[in-house]
Design goal:
A hairpin with a 6-residue loop joins strand 3 and strand 4. Helices cover 33% and strands 26% of the residues. By secondary structure, the protein is an alpha+beta fold. The chain has a six-stranded mixed beta sheet. The chain starts with 5 loop residues before the first strand and ends with a helix.
Length: 112
């Protein structure tokens, strides 16, 4: 999440959903930031893992971008859209997977 996504959560939904195994939920402050975060994820997985999404929704609008990788779905929201759709609440029973500290941009910024 090199584009400074905030409130990033990775949820393990394997026991709760047949659609996917994990949900990655993140927030960007504006349509441009949401698009940049989603594009960064797409390019990172393409370039570093030769993995392309099965589907991409919402990239043109930048309010809520969904990147569907089958086993993992990435949702990047603007704050008001994230609050409205409340995936965090919908999947509140899903265990949250800890994201290693080296992937949090806040930690990198604080170290500099």
């Amino acid at each position: 999440m090199g584009k400074k996504a905030s409130d990033v959560r990775l949820l393990d939904v394997r026991a709760l959903s047949s659609l996917t195994d994990f949900l990655l939920i993140a927030t960007g402050r504006s349509d441009r930031q949401v698009q940049a975060i989603a594009e960064s994820v797409r390019l990172g997985l393409k370039n570093e893992h030769q993995t392309l999404p099965l589907a991409v929704e919402g990239m043109n609008e930048g309010r809520w971008v969904l990147l569907d990788y089958g086993d993992v779905m990435v949702h990047v929201f603007q704050p008001s859209v994230r609050e409205f759709y409340d995936l965090d609440g919908l999947w509140r029973e899903a265990p949250e997977v800890s994201i290693p500290a080296e992937y949090h941009w806040e930690n990198k910024a604080a170290a500099q």
